[in-house]
Amino acid sequence: MADLKFTDDQASAEESAAIDAVIGDERATVHEHPRVIRGGTKRRHRMRHLLLPALHALQTESGWISPGGLNYICEQLQVPPAEAFGVASFYELFKVDQAPGHDEAVTHVCVDGPCRAGSAQVIAGIKAGGGHVHESPCLGQCERPTAVFVQGRRGPNVVKADAPNVLAQHGEPALRLLHRVGVVDPESLDSYRSHGGYAALDAAIAAGPDAVIASLTESGLSGRGGAAFPTGIKWRGVRDADGDTKHIVANCDESEPGTFKDRIVMESDPFALVEAMTIAAVTTGAENGWIYVRGEYPLATARVQNAIDLARSAGLLGDDVAHSGQRFDIEVRRGAGAYICGEETALFNSLEGFRGEPRNKPPYPTTHGLFNQPTAINNPETLLNVLPIVLEGAASYRSVGTESSPGTRLFCLSGDVGNPGLYEFAFGVTLGEVLERAGGVEGELQAVLLGGAAGTFVDSTSLDMALTLEDTRAAGTTLGSGVVMVFNQNADMTDTCTRIAEFFRNESCGQCVPCRVGAVRQHEMLVELRTGGPAMPDDRRQLHDDMARAMADSSICGLGHTACSAVASALTLGLIGTSQ
Amino acid sequence: MTAVYNNNTADASAEVAVTISIDGADVIVPEGATVLDACNAAGVDTPTLCYAENLTAVNACRLCVVEMDGSRTLIPSCSRPAEDGMVIKTDSERVRHSRKMVLEFLGSGVDLSQADELGTWSEFYGADADRYGPAPARINEPVKIQDDLYIRDYDKCVLCYKCVEACGDDAQHTFAISVSGRGFDARISTEFDITLPDSACVYCGNCVAVCPTNALQFKTEFDLRTVGEWRPEEHEVTTTVCSYCGVGCNLEMHVQDNTIVKVTSPNDHDVTSGHLCIKGRFGWQYVQPTIERGPTT
Ligand SMILES: Cc1cc2nc3c(=O)[nH]c(=O)nc-3n(C[C@H](O)[C@H](O)[C@H](O)COP(=O)(O)O)c2cc1C
Ligand code: SF4
Ligand code: SF4
Ligand code: FES
User: Fold this and answer.
1) Per DSSP, which regions of B45-104 are E strands?
2) Are residues A83 and A205 in the same domain?
3) How far apart are CA B276 and CA B208, in angstroms?
4) Which of A365, A480, B87, B262 has a 20 to 30 A CA-CA distance from B20?
5) DSSP secondary-structure letter at B65?
6) Which CATH architecture has domain B150-287?
7) What lines the ligand 2 site, CB under 6 Å?
8) pLDDT tens digits, A10-38
């Protein structure tokens, strides 16, 4: 038993009941007999991953992380209270101070991207009605501004979902990844099966792991979460790695400003995610699956959980997955409001019950991932691609797209276009065509943010750019998570860039110096420009360049590496910082 | 020129050796050694902040970065294992730039007045912490004086994680403090920021001993500094063995004006690795009268 010290604060009966309900019957220490206590480090470590769900339970029950509730969690899981406090205070959705009104629901209102313009009015309206408001970074509903998410107390969490997700491309035969969205009943396994569901799993089991990995490698599929790492190589790495247990993780933390594709997939075609993860499991030999869903996605969370439950009842998860002889099951975990937890190693730490701070790489997740075991972590869009590759083969998959960027890509269109929403196009489509297909620019085009806050701005000179990995890289930009956020001539780009800088300031985990301080200094520089501009003096531009170089070179993770790229591109294009 | 590795923190008897190039010179180090070990073996002086030989590397400060052929980004030398064939540059423009910026960033937000080594490196790399506008955000924390043994002045904290490691897994296993909050608002803290006497703290002082910036100070030092009487250059250091129990910890008694003002233990001592308990660290009042103390709040 760890020698822990607790303050005198006690949990209420409701708090301990709510916590017990998520951590189950096992305890880190068990008093078997007055003189026999079972405990120890191993047991403590085994239960640590329950910290995040327990904190969620406490927050929902009490509206904050109360000292008594925290003590109770720490006693049951044998986590030092200072560490648990460090974890709780890392997340936006957990409140560690007892502010007035803490016992009410909180309405999170998005102040990013296309929601920014209308947010002030929405916030004023909620406040006038006596509601509790929190200004939130992008809530992943950019196609329907102004986005809100209501964090309930003892009640459900809700997002505005007045209409089901309907695609502008509904019914188009070219859709490979989205063909079931708006067509299939997302809550019915039978409906999924009648639309071709689970044929790919059968095919993958029949073909065997080596054949599946060969197809993936041949298909040229690369990761859609931002880093574009070849999926075949990743799965091969996990299959070949030694480990006690192996893990499949779906990275559904989607928090890159402007991105909402994974939410729509989870809400409208959740079985596809579960099936693709199961293929990953039988291919790599992993027995444990985890879906880490963004905390602000209650509907997606419920749909995915329902899909897992139905798949388990049908023998498609569990001890003998689809008669393959392999065990595989999936647990859903909710994030708690931290963009950085989308970074794969930060996600592992978060899921394991630690602060969501990225780890230094190497070692890489394929050998040292979740719980330090071999792990394949993928974005849901990446996983969706596995289904057609397994069903139709690599050659057919490569029949669209380009040599270096085969297949199709999901694009999240938002801002000043006629028809914001989720689109699927073959790689190689030009930016101009994408804007046209999405209803055209409303007004006169000023700039497009490609790839999210971690991406870059481009202007009308890039309309002919082919959207592929190679062309965007050559042009110094990125497809990132598929964000295409459009700004017309009325947009205040200095304000937009200031908000992007503020986003990184708020979301830096704070672990490494270049990002922790650099993100603050960049934001201060933009605030200075917004109040003192419009021109940015040469020495300030030089300073921004100095900061951007050091952050890209020496930060630990991708957040710090890219935190200056959007602002730098806006400066280069003259969208901000010039005297006109 | 081939330098032979002789750092006693890695296993010198390891059978597998790796050869790594540091600024053009081949260096042979045992497998498991870090790039920093190789730099040391090559006689290259490398600034570090969050690294300590008696703690697990957290590679958070990024001061020790070096350039490696084939790597898009710079790498932290303190924690990157040396591999055969690595080609490392420790003094390229990129390396100097990043080190300078890390030092500038720290200087612009943290009180480094008592972090002497950082001051020297800042001068070396030409860091100019004053070019961040009129009022850059700073840590701005008041000094915490909650007991007679030490003070916490987080205005001087660079968030190197050393104290957390010394309090936790790396030495004391008490876990009284942790990093809380996020980003620039991250702070070293107890749960709900309760006072140290209320917390799990056992007053071993191991956090104070590892703190590189004097954010954590023994109260004796703090009081003497407050009245302008802290004169480390005059300290006489006497090494002795602690008399409280049979473990045999080495103590270094720092004496100023014939008074013990601080107790440390050598990092390379094979019993303590620099860490002590409350008795060795503070239990020396029986050899001298209690000295005047400043107020506790
Ligand atoms: C700050 C940051 C945030 C990220 N957020 C996400 C995310 O929300 N979803 C995601 O799939 N990948 C995200 N990533 C990328 C992941 O680290 C990882 O590369 C990806 O999940 C791997 O899956 P893939 O190979 O299928 O793309 C993020 C990376 C960084 C640096
Ligand atoms: S780059 Fe930023 S987010 Fe990433 S580890 Fe460093 S401080 Fe954390
Ligand atoms: S108090 Fe000292 S040891 Fe602790 S993190 Fe801050 S600078 Fe490092
Ligand atoms: S000393 Fe290497 S990162 Fe701090």
Assistant:
1) 65-68, 75-76, 87-89
2) no
3) 11
4) A365
5) E
6) Single Sheet (2.20)
7) A 340, 358, 508-512, 515-516, 555-557, 559-560
8) 999 999 999 999 998 888 788 888 888 87
